[in-house]
Amino acid sequence: DEEGRGRAELVTMLSGFLDTGTDGMEEAVESLLERGLVTEDAGARLRMTPEGHALREKAYARVARASAEIHEGIPEAE
């Protein structure tokens, strides 16, 4: 979103999904910055760049395709 997220907030949030610990998440955030997928302002708020948004959309599309393939032929009631 336009407001961005604080670095600590993002690290905490992602640590709940991935088993890398805080240090691993800090490294991941640094990688996003180095790759130009996010920016960080003076207040340590992170915001996605246009490249970051494009990559996120590409990832969402891949996840949707994979989910559709996994669930193909399975009735919704199941």
Structural account:
- With 78 residues, the chain is mainly alpha-helical.
- The chain has one domain (5-71): Arc Repressor Mutant, subunit A (Orthogonal Bundle).
- It has 3 helices and 3 strands.
- Strands 1-3-2 form a 3-stranded antiparallel beta sheet.
- The longest helix has 22 residues, at 50-71.
Q: From the alpha carbons, calculate the radius of gyration and give it in angstroms.
A: 16 Å
Please identify, by name, the CATH architecture: Orthogonal Bundle
Structural class by secondary-structure content = mainly alpha
**Any low-confidence stretches, pLDDT <50, length ≥5?**
none
If you average the pLDDT, what whole number results?
88
Strand content: 5-15%
Keywords: DNA-binding
Protein name: Winged helix DNA-binding protein
GO molecular function: DNA binding
InterPro entries: WH-like_DNA-bd_sf, WH_DNA-bd_sf
